[in-house]
Design a protein that fits this description.
The complex is a heterodimer of chains A (105) and B (418). Chain A is of the alpha+beta class. Chain A has 2 helices and 6 strands. With 418 residues, chain B is of the alpha+beta class. In chain B, the strands form 6 sheets. In chain B, strands 11-9-15-21-20 form a 5-stranded antiparallel sheet, covered by helices on one side. A 4-stranded antiparallel sheet of chain B has the order 2-3-1-4. Chain B starts with 10 loop residues before the first helix and ends with a helix. The chains are: A alpha+beta (105), B alpha+beta (418). At the A-B interface, strand 3 and strand 5 of A face helix 2 and strand 2 of B.
Chain lengths: 105, 418
Amino acid sequence: MFGRTNRKKKAEKETEKKGIKAMELITESLGLPKDTVLGAALVRSIGNRELYVENFRSIIEYTERKVRLQTKTCKLTIEGKCLFIEYYNCEEIKITGYIMAIQYE
Amino acid sequence: MNRKAGSHLNPIIYYMKGYVTIALLGNSPERFLNMCNYKKIVIWNLQNKNGTYECCIALKDFWEIKPIVKKTNVHIKVLKKTGVPFFLYNNRKRKLSYISVVIFFMCLFAMSKFCWSIEFEGNQKYTDEVLMNFVKMQGYHHGMALSKIECEQLEKLIRSEYNDINWVSAMIDGTKLIIKVKENTGLLTIEEETIRSCHLIANESGKIVSMITREGVPMVSVGDEVEKGQLLVSGILQLKDDSETIIGEELVKADADVTIERKIPYENQLNRAYKKRIYKKEKQQWFFKIFDYRFEWLPMKINLEQAEVISEEKQVKIFENFYLPFYYGKTKVKLYEEEDAYYTDEEIINKASNELEYYFEKLRKLGVEIIENNVKMLVNEKTVVASGTITIREKIGIQEEIKQEEFTEEITQEYEYN
């Protein structure tokens, strides 16, 4: 019983991956904006002191050293020191502080 | 790619509307933040302080987070309240002060609609008082509405009244009416040619030291002694032919520069006795004036008959040209007592010499040259008398119209001779 469920889940994941790849191909070939079509997150940084993130869903975790955001396609981790969220709304989030690393999971 | 405009937070707007700084305590503050985001509630200045989340939220949105707080099981603690609504609430018992501030600005605005100062620039011959009196007679005064001031009409009135003023400009700056004038300081005056022909007559007696004739026939020469009323230059020109026979006469306007030297008497008597002022106290007093009402700070009860009063007044202004009908200043009162005194010889001679020098200065301004001073000082017990003669050189000559009989008689005599 569990074997069938696992196999089903695997198949679903594979289909999803194929779907995403196909969408990426179409987007690239037609020159469409990826953030709108694919829901990709827009990350804009000014040096290592300011970071703007658009097209995200929610905050997973926030501490002075780490901010984790959930975007539509992946999880975004910002690591650093004295991280401060200057503003946070449905459109954009601005993070200031000493940014040391940005990771996509 | 459509780049969305950044969420610019306008601090002034948020201050005007009011916002609170809150602390989020609980297990899932991130869930609270995400739910706020879902409900489009803006949060800013979010920071994690030792496990506690602190952030700012608008007052309007604060009232809407109650269901979110319940759902996420988060405890909210208000740390700080900022903004105009909180300021007004905290000072709700001080309504009178706010009303007075509002009234103050309303009064200021109302007063800015009137003219509280009139200033003149560029005037030399006509003093400020003279021009001010004229302007007042035309209906322009302190305290009148700015909308009623017609600058162009005022300029025309001043130009028509004063012929010496070539250019006038009236403008309103703030609550000040500035009138700039330019006077005709040159000597370019057009003389009205009413007299076509005339003689030049001596208006003083003396000895001629210099004579330059431009028009007419000179009847005297350098070195001659002339009397007052004597003919200096004749305006009748005799026309002669080649054989020196007078064939006719022509009337001209006699013109010449005639300088004579003469002596004029001078006499001046001064008394040695005088009233000397001994200054005792000097008091200073501040005053304040609103419109025409004057209020003095600690008014002085003094006898103004034996006091010198010097008053200095200033008008209150906010900016350079925003004058208000409030004046302030100080009055200096010097009390004195008079006692009899006598000039010493040296003092009285100095005084007499100064007066003589002043007389000379007046003569020089009239174009008179001082050649010799024979004034002597005679000092007595009670007076000093400065008397003598002053030799001067001055230009003389006044125009006198040629009489009809004079001209006709000359012609008749000529014809008879022929």
